[in-house]
Design brief:
The structure holds 2 protein chains of 2 kinds. By secondary structure, chain A is α+β, with helices and mostly antiparallel strands. Helix content of chain A is 45%, strand content 14%. Chain A folds into 3 domains: 85 residues, Acyl-CoA dehydrogenase/oxidase, N-terminal domain (Butyryl-Coa Dehydrogenase, subunit A, domain 1), CATH 1.10.540.10; 109 residues, Butyryl-CoA Dehydrogenase, subunit A, domain 2, CATH 2.40.110.10; 141 residues, Up-down Bundle (Butyryl-CoA Dehydrogenase, subunit A, domain 3), CATH 1.20.140. Classes of the chains: A alpha+beta, B alpha+beta.
């Protein structure tokens, strides 16, 4: 047991930190309200390409597909340092965290050659087409149909809550290819060209006011059969790989983002009003801030435990689900406390308000944390059944 | 970074678990707890044989030359087994002062399983915790090389069974003052002066508290004032990290009882563990314990490697693990319904140990107060 960086990890971290200091885009304002200060797609892609050219993308991916074949700890350090530097993320989050690992595990050589390197360089942006209006937590009940027609499949249906679909070139999409079998057994995993005829994307506005995700309508979309990932009707197993990776090393980025937010919360708590009153002098506030600090450290070291089990077994352990479950609720408590500290002025969310709308956006956005990437209720079911061995709830 | 126990530590874990489960299973612990002595003294040399009583002591002092991470493994297992005996009192509380003393004999006797010891800092109208020890009203008087102590100590862990007590007292003569004034640490031979001990009825009967009424009681000087403050601060960090590990073991065991029950008990023709009202509460208890486990191991590692974050890591670990263990036991009791509420089921004994851990050396809110001062002032 040793929580320090190894000499190799320390060297990688130092080099990355220096690179981020010199290259972090100045036009990116991490404290801004994203509803007003839109970071453009082209800026995001240019930044992503620089990360790739500097050798920081695909750290754990195989070398023949543009990766670095580096240890998982480097990926964790990358996520930590990008979050700590408050630099923007690579625009291809879905490709990096979900589509790429899924193709590495289940893709054909042609699929890997076509997409992996282009994901890293941001030449291709992926989105995810899993959820539907009638299939959220119960994903396997999805109804989008894919019907074989010669060397092609014809896809009709609707997908929802799809982040990045408005800028995506490709979609990893689950569709039903067999209605004669139990619902998990009739699904197929496709790579769908988002520029193909019949694909229509409509933005969905969230309660923050921000259109972060979209609906995708598919009408007679023709997909060549060689764009099936894994077996026809074998898509459920492929999708499980995707979801496992979604929660894999994500915890590192989430935890450091919370570290940054907690630092700001401390700053807010220590700010005196005109009468010299500081929220930090209130014992209740002090207890809550300290509790958040303990939560944050618990998450950080739980991530390290998860990383150790990933390195030793190659499979993300249950610690990842724990981290996501706990982080989402801690982040909701943190942002809500920030609004409480702002007092009656918490309602003011314009550029002329105390934090320029930052805390209001963060607090509203945090409500999505317990819904996206597996609702807390589904995560609890997964932990109950797969980790604790309790009987299925149904 | 590497967050895994070594092969040797895993072997140690299996050995301790095997020894405790094989000889002192929970029904035996319950009998001992309900009996006069509260423990089985035959267990003490057995723990010493496994090396559990001197893990972080150097080999030339009768130890294994390991560190607090090795001891973390032992304490987690002792918690899981609800081991009744002066392990925490001796290894966590007394050994740092014994190790700082010039005479190696008392320390080596504890490592060899020949003696046990505890620490007496709290007083009825004075300090309540190790952190407050300097406020002691207990007085040490010197007569040549001999010392006598006068004053009252309370809340002394395992006072009724420990062979010796490390006692914090103000040394009035002939020693140079240190950072905590005249506070020094002495050893009182409780085996020879049993008349000073009053056992107190304690909620957790597996780790009873007692009072010491010292009235010119002979004592030997272990640590002079110039070192006493440092030794007590180090003792406190050890105690907090090891209590956190113990709490994780206790919580694991409580959750295991609840999971077993929820997977077997049927109501309305279904296993109760299939109801989300039951399963989600257990998941939350388990998840809190997993975070506490990470913090407890981190704290142990920080103390073992002299990391600059050791003090705050210990505060964070103790606050999280103490509360998580209490909550895990409460969730387990709720899950098991009437069964969990009976005296016959061992769950209440785990619950009381969790509460013992939570109460000792500051509850969660006390540690958060300490952390808030570091974060906000």
């Amino acid at each position: 047991m040793d929580f320090r960086d190894t000499p190799d990890e320390a060297a990688f971290r130092a080099e990355l930190r220096a690179w981020l200091r010199d290259n972090r885009p100045t036009e990116w304002d991490p404290q801004g309200d994203p509803r007003r200060e839109r970071w453009g797609v082209e800026q995001g892609k240019a930044w992503s390409r620089r990360l790739w050219e500097a050798g920081y993308m695909g750290l754990t991916w195989p070398k023949e597909h543009g990766g670095q074949a580096a240890p998982y700890s480097h990926q964790a350090i990358l996520l930590e340092e990008i979050a700590r530097a408050e630099a923007p993320e690579h625009v291809g989050i879905i490709g990096l965290a979900m589509a790429g690992p899924t193709l590495i595990a289940h893709g054909t050589e042609a699929q890997k050659a076509a997409h992996l390197e282009r994901i890293l360089s941001a030449d291709e942006v992926f989105c995810q087409g899993f959820s539907e209006p009638g299939a959220g937590s119960d994903l396997a009940s999805l109804r989008t149909r894919a019907v074989r027609d010669g060397d092609e499949f014809v896809i009709d249906g609707q997908k929802v809550w799809s982040s990045f679909a408005h800028i995506a070139d490709w979609c990893i999409l689950l569709a039903r290819t067999n209605t004669e079998v139990p619902k998990h057994k009739g699904l197929t995993f496709f790579l769908v060209d988002m520029h193909a005829p019949g694909v229509e994307v409509r933005p969905l506005r969230q309660l923050t006011g921000d259109p972060e995700f979209n609906e995708i309508f598919l009408t007679g979309v023709r997909v060549p059969a060689d764009q099936v990932v894994g077996e026809v009707d074998g898509g459920w197993a492929v999708a499980m790989t995707t979801l496992l990776h979604e929660r894999g090393t994500l915890g590192f980025a989430l935890t450091v983002r919370m570290e940054v937010a907690l630092r700001r919360l401390v700053q807010l708590a220590r700010t005196a009003d005109a009468a010299g009153r500081r929220p930090a002098d209130d014992p209740l506030v002090r207890d809550q801030v300290a509790r958040l600090w303990v939560d944050l450290q618990g998450l950080r070291y739980t991530n390290y435990r998860a990383l150790t089990s990933l390195v030793r077994t190659g499979i993300p352990g249950p610690e990842g689900s724990v981290a996501k479950l706990h982080w989402s609720e801690a982040n909701q408590r943190l942002t809500k406390l920030a609004l409480e500290l702002l007092g009656p002025a918490a309602q003011l969310d314009g550029p002329d308000s105390a934090w320029g709308g930052y805390w209001q956006y963060q607090q509203l956005r945090s409500r999505g944390n317990t819904i996206e990437a597996g609702t807390s209720e589904v995560l609890r079911n997964i932990i109950a059944e797969r980790v604790l061995g309790l009987p299925r709830s149904r | 970074m590497d967050f895994a126990f070594s092969e040797e530590q895993q072997l140690l874990r299996r050995s301790v678990r095997g020894l405790l489960a094989g000889n002192w299973p929970l029904d035996r612990v319950a009998e001992l707890a309900d009996g006069e002595a509260g423990w089985d003294p035959a267990s003490w040399p057995r723990l010493a044989e496994l090396g559990c009583l001197g893990l972080s002591l150097p080999a030339e002092r009768g130890g294994a030359g390991g560190d607090l991470v090795d001891e973390a493994v032992v304490f987690e297992e002792a918690g899981r087994a609800l081991y009744p005996g002066p392990l925490f009192a001796t290894v966590a509380l007394a050994q740092p002062a014994l190790a700082a003393a010039a005479d190696p004999a008392p320390l080596e006797a504890t490592a060899a399983g020949e003696r046990s010891a505890t620490l007496a800092v709290a007083e009825p109208d004075g300090p309540r915790t190790i952190a407050e020890a300097a406020a002691s009203a207990c007085v040490a008087k010197r007569d040549g090389d001999a010392w006598t102590l006068t004053g009252t100590k309370t809340l002394v862990p395992d006072a009724g069974i420990a062979a010796g007590a490390v006692v914090a007292a103000q040394a009035s003569d002939g020693v140079a003052p240190g950072g905590d004034g005249q506070l020094a640490l002495f050893l009182v031979d409780l085996a020879a002066h049993g008349e000073v001990v009053t056992a107190r009825s304690t909620m957790d009967a597996t780790r009873r508290l007692g009072d010491l009424a010292l009235d010119a009681t002979p004592a030997t000087l272990l640590v002079a004032p110039d070192q006493a403050g440092q030794v007590l601060a180090a003792t406190r960090r050890r105690a907090l990290a090891l209590l956190a590990c113990e709490a994780v073991g206790v919580a694991d065991r409580a959750i295991a009882f609840a999971l077993e029950y929820a997977g077997q008990r049927q109501q309305f023709d279904r296993y109760i563990g299939s109801y989300q009202a039951v399963s989600h509460r257990l998941v939350d208890a388990w998840a809190a314990v997993e975070l506490a486990r990470s913090l407890a191991y981190w704290a142990a590692w920080c103390v073992a490697s002299g990391d600059e974050q050791a003090t705050r890591a210990c505060a964070g670990a103790k606050s999280a693990a103490g509360e998580a263990a209490v909550a895990a036991c409460e969730s387990a009791i709720q899950c098991m319904g009437g069964i969990g509420f009976t005296w016959d089921h061992p769950l209440h004994r785990l619950y009381k140990r969790a509460q013992w851990v939570e109460a000792f050396e500051g509850v969660g809110a006390d540690h958060r107060r300490e952390l808030a001062a570091r974060l906000l002032d």
